[in-house]
Amino acid sequence: MELVWWHWFVLGLALIALEMLTPTFFLLWFGLGALLTGTAVWLWPMGLAAQALLWSVTSLIMMGVWLKFFKNPVDTRPGLAKESVLGTTGLVTRAVSEMGQGEILFQRPVLGADRWPIIADGSIEAGNKARVVDVVGQILKVEKV
Fold first, then answer.
1. How is 39-73 classified by DSSP, letter by letter?
2. Count H helices, E strands: the chain?
3. Domain map of the chain by residue range?
4. CA distance 108 to 133
5. Which end of the chain is more exposed for a tag (fewer CB within 10 A), N or C?
6. pLDDT in tens, 21-61
């Protein structure tokens, strides 16, 4: 069986589509590797073994780069939960007043949740951005950004 460049493009697009169904960031690199292999085969026709080797190498290199440079730094600092949260910015979804609690939404989960109850020294209206300045038990203390 001979693979031509468009076979690799179909495989790459199929793997990327599957990645969207299972957001694991695993199939994405093999899909991009297939697209790169398809481009290389289109430019320089090669045998099946060379194509498979090129796909394996490009996929593993991209996965290795992703693991080295884009892994979550919070996961590598056990015991520093409070320090990892300080300075994180989120969107206030329920207004907070000096005497009442509000709620904040983070773009990425913070300490396992994307929504947290908040307190503040002053009023912050919903829709404003706020920065975490302290952790008080199960409540985050924030200031307006």
1. HHHHHS---HHHHHHHHHHHHHHHHHHHHHHSS-G
2. 4, 5
3. 5-70, 78-144
4. 17
5. N
6. 887 778 899 999 999 999 999 999 999 999 999 999 999 99
